[in-house]
Amino acid sequence: MTTTAAASGRWRLRQPSVIPGFGLTLGFSLAYLTLIILIPLAGLVWRSASLSGAEFLGILSDPRTVNALKVSFGTAFIAAIVNVVFGVIVAWVIVRYEFPGRRIVDAVVDLPFALPTAVAGIALAALYAPNGWIGQILNVVGIKAAFNPTGIVIALVFIGLPFVVRTVQPVMEEIDSEIEEAAATLGANRFQTVFRVLLPGLAPAILTGFALAFARGVGEYGSVIFIAGNIPYVSEIAPLLIVIRLEEFSYGAATAIATIMLALSFAMLLVINLIQAWSRRRYGHGA
């Protein structure tokens, strides 16, 4: 009997399934993730480990490196916040309202996925440059929207919006409109219905969308370099600095900066995932 209990305890690690091939598919998944993700990241860390501690700290404390990291992470964070606000609104309009051209609006959301990032950068630079259609209007009120960190935020908002919309939209579709009607029947105003009834259930999905948009923004290169201006200490992003170090054949410095970005990104995404898990446990909704 003890043997049977021990055996059943061991088999709890794998849930019963009518679909065979668990061992094969698990082995393939682990091998694939190792080859595609773990080995390249390990190689990056190993290459940067060839630097001495003093050299690594020197690269980390270099003012140009610090400023590039601030620009990359700061603009990505701001763009992700903007995308959360407007992404939720766009998802709400697509899910809750019927209007002519709704399917077209739904399809346009995915356009940044299909559009090459370099094309997006050129288009945004042409629009928001001082002599561009939108740039000329903004110059009248004293706003320079290109060739500075503001331009970087605009590019990251463009490429990050679909991540928030497509993450929030399926969860929003599962929320029955009768919940809103019940809240109104119980005396809740529109503000209370949104912030106390709807948003708590959407919180895990919103955090997931924020994390995806932020992660994409931190590593974005193609759409940013055309509108950023790439001025050191002003609008130079970390991915561009890595490319510059590679062109200078300073492979150690390039891998060191990449390792720093990897560590910072992992730490921030870990915090976001912990908050998401807490939100899911509290409100009982999955992303």
UniProtKB/TrEMBL annotation:
The gene is cysT. PANTHER family: SULFATE TRANSPORT SYSTEM PERMEASE PROTEIN (PTHR30406), SULFATE TRANSPORT SYSTEM PERMEASE PROTEIN CYST (PTHR30406:SF8). It comes from the Bacteria. It is a multi-pass membrane protein. This is Sulfate transport system permease protein CysT. Belongs to the binding-protein-dependent transport system permease family. CysTW subfamily. GO terms for molecular function: ABC-type sulfate transporter activity. It is found in: Cell membrane. The complex is composed of two ATP-binding proteins (CysA), two transmembrane proteins (CysT and CysW) and a solute-binding protein (CysP). Pfam families: BPD_transp_1. GO terms for cellular component: plasma membrane. The chain crosses the membrane at residues 21-46, 71-95, 107-129, 141-165, 197-215, 251-275. It comes from Shinella sumterensis. Keywords: Membrane, Sulfate transport, Transmembrane, Transmembrane helix, Transport. Part of the ABC transporter complex CysAWTP (TC 3.A.1.6.1) involved in sulfate/thiosulfate import. Probably responsible for the translocation of the substrate across the membrane. The keyword Transport applies.
